[in-house]
Amino acid sequence: MSVTEVSQKYRTTHSYPGALYLLPSDEDEKERLAHQHQLYKTLFGGRVIFPNIVFPPNAEVLDLGTGSATWLVDCRSLLPESVQLYGMDIESKLFPAYSVTPANTHYSIGSVTNLPSYWSSKFTLVNQRLLILALSKDEWRKDISEIYRVLKDGGYAQFTEIDSNWISGPKTVEYVKFLNDFLEAKNLDLQCCDHIPELMANAGFVDIHTEEVIVKIGKWAGQLGEEARNASIGALRGMKGPVMKAGGMGFARTPEEFDQKMDEVADEWDRTEGSYRKLKVFYGMKCQ
Ligand SMILES: C[S@@+](CC[C@H](N)C(=O)[O-])C[C@H]1O[C@@H](n2cnc3c(N)ncnc32)[C@H](O)[C@@H]1O
């Protein structure tokens, strides 16, 4: 198959120069992110803001890698209308339509590695969720120092990421080994959860906390288990284009084989009681 044939066959992705992000930006992804947001919210007992923040009436809140802005929209419902909300992403395809965007909400295109210079010391809260398939180690460092820069003194950053450990059966072990190799070849950091607290401390954050929940995956865990399976397998299936463009990396020779392997992994989660991953939230304050 030629490179052109391969690229026409797969889902729409971002077109931001230099960005490493692997997942698609299309309607199916929008739906997956909406379900995933509800799942994560439920698992964390309905919480979307983790640090204990008193928002002044003119506070400004930033959501980086906002995607379809599910977090930002929920956050807005908790805050006074005078609070200004900003969502930034390398790709605008998932942004809510302009016609349903309230006056206090602003979306823009840009990368977390290079935030506008005029945003220095602006935000009371910066949220960033699920950039695990997007940033190299160096970019994580840049990202966290940029977030520190754009926070007000006493403002908080919160990061939500999924842990790289995946507990299930042999198909999952085989997949995770491949994923590690694939992401390493792409210069992405599957172990970002292990590095975020240290990167935060190095950037100057204080009062750093970590919270985590177990995400049970598979039919055996009831409706939430099925939601978790769909969210996870949907993300893994979304990487089919990049994996096949990289020649399958010894994991799948054809797109059909890739699909079959994903079916087998999802089936293993359904059948293996005790399959789980951990979801982690890290937050910390810009030193006053
Ligand atoms: C898995 S989605 C998560 C979306 C949203 N944060 C959520 O939790 O529903 C990751 C998002 O990060 C965006 N992204 C990837 N690399 C980025 C970068 N360097 N700067 C800003 N956004 C980025 C993608 O376009 C995508 O919308």
TrEMBL record:
<dbReference type="InterPro" id="IPR041698">
    <property type="entry name" value="Methyltransf_25"/>
</dbReference>
<protein>
    <recommendedName>
        <fullName>Methyltransferase domain-containing protein</fullName>
    </recommendedName>
</protein>
<dbReference type="InterPro" id="IPR029063">
    <property type="entry name" value="SAM-dependent_MTases_sf"/>
</dbReference>
<dbReference type="Pfam" id="PF13649">
    <property type="entry name" value="Methyltransf_25"/>
</dbReference>
<feature type="domain" description="Methyltransferase">
    <location>
        <begin position="61"/>
        <end position="155"/>
    </location>
</feature>
